[in-house]
Amino acid sequence: MILVVAEHRDGKLNRATLETIAAAQHAGGPVKIAVLGAGVDAVAAEVARADAAEVITVDDAALKDYTADGFVMALEQLIAAEKPERVFLPHTYQARDFAPALAARINRPLVTDCVAVKDGAVKDGGYVRPMFQGKLQADIAIDGPHMATFQIGAYRADAMKAGTAPIRKAAIAIDASKIRQKPEAPFKEAKQAVDLSQAERIVSVGRGIKAQEHLQLAQQLAQAMGAEIAASRPICDAGWLPMDRQIGSSGQTVAPKLYVALGISGAIQHLVGMKGARTIVAINKDPEAPIFEIADYGIAGDLFEVVPAMIAELNK
Ligand SMILES: Cc1cc2nc3c(=O)[nH]c(=O)nc-3n(C[C@H](O)[C@H](O)[C@H](O)COP(=O)(O)OP(=O)(O)OC[C@H]3O[C@@H](n4cnc5c(N)ncnc54)[C@H](O)[C@@H]3O)c2cc1C
């Protein structure tokens, strides 16, 4: 049996949960879904629309605000009672906070950041996860009970098989005095001023652009193409473009007709935000860059030579 741990905030289900349920269904065997918190009926009802054996809630005032200690305490007991062979979680900030502590507490291996799970029994199956900034896709074979987290976008939420799962409340007691953390205001994603998900064409800039003053080259290309400008995370982290222009797992997910990647290596966290583009054009001076694996058209070359030539052609 696979136990999927749902994630929600203020009664709103994180869609990554549905993706993780899809991963569990793909892996095969019975799937149960755990919903932790205080007053979780609505979230439980929402995930109960999945094809699953059961939704189990742990409803306790001590779990109202997320804390690593509270979640570890609750899941340790739930896992001891339900004995799932595997525990699946979405690879979110929250899961990354408590999953390693939970794995250590219950003495189980934890495979993080998976992009695929092979179907079949645990001993025949396994996981795929990127390593070395996506330069390598590693096959992880694992035997015995374990836990795994799934990268956002690895499975599609709409691929989740629907059904009607019964909901049961677990009899689990949380000792609030053992929770050491004091919850603060939760991490908030940046407010999105531009909605790149509606853009038909996007020119996206990566670290290959080298300096902020070179951004105007990408902007000229975007203008010539009638495209929106976007970027990989390091560009937004450096403040060269606003955060709402970032594409990827911690930025926007886009599906334009045309996505032009300039000097972007193709890390998994970037790819999950743009792999739905209909046509991907990559310009990168490293012919081995992972971006070329998903590009429809690739130019292995220096963007400072290629882009001016493209702008000149487009302006003709
Ligand atoms: C939790 C987490 C969340 C993340 N979320 C995101 C996210 O949402 N979005 C995101 O993008 N990243 C995200 N990242 C970061 C991600 O892992 C990569 O570090 C990042 O995408 C790399 O950006 P890049 O491709 O621009 O830079 P690099 O990996 O440094 O690649 C630069 C590329 O430019 C090429 N290049 C250099 N000079 C030239 C030239 N003159 N002409 C042509 N090509 C050239 C190089 O060959 C190289 O391939 C996240 C990471 C973590 C851990």
Please state the overall shape, judged from the principal axes of the Cα atoms: elongated
The poorly predicted ranges are none
Report the radius of gyration as a whole number of Å: 22 Å
Query: Strand order of the main beta sheet, please?
Result: 7-11-6-1-4-5-12
Total domain count: 2
Percentage beta strand = 15-25%
Corresponding CATH architecture of the largest domain: 3-Layer(aba) Sandwich
Bound molecules: flavin-adenine dinucleotide
Order of helices and strands: EEEHEHEHEHEEEEEEEHEHEHEHEH
What portion of residues is helical?
25-40%
Largest sheet report: 7 strands, parallel
CATH homologous superfamily classification of the largest domain: HUPs
Mean pLDDT: 92
Give the CATH level 1 class of the largest domain. Answer: Alpha Beta
Q: With helices defined by DSSP (H or I, 4 residues minimum), what is the helix count?
A: 9
Q: Give a count of the beta strands, DSSP E runs of length 2 or more.
A: 17
The third-level CATH topology of the largest domain is Rossmann fold
Q: How would you describe this structure to a colleague?
A:
There is one protein chain. The chain has 316 residues and is of the alpha/beta class. It has two domains: 2-178, Rossmann fold, CATH 3.40.50; 196-314, Rossmann fold. The chain is 28% helix and 24% strand. The strands form four sheets. The chain has a seven-stranded parallel beta sheet, sandwiched between helices. A five-stranded parallel beta sheet has the order 14-13-15-16-17. A three-stranded antiparallel beta sheet has the order 8-9-10. β15 (258-262), α7 and β16 form a beta-alpha-beta unit. α3 packs across α4 (93-106) and α5 (215-225) packs parallel to α9. The structure holds flavin-adenine dinucleotide. Flavin-adenine dinucleotide is lined by residues 206-208, 232-234, 246-251, 263-265, 267, 269-270, 273, 283-286, 289, 302-304.
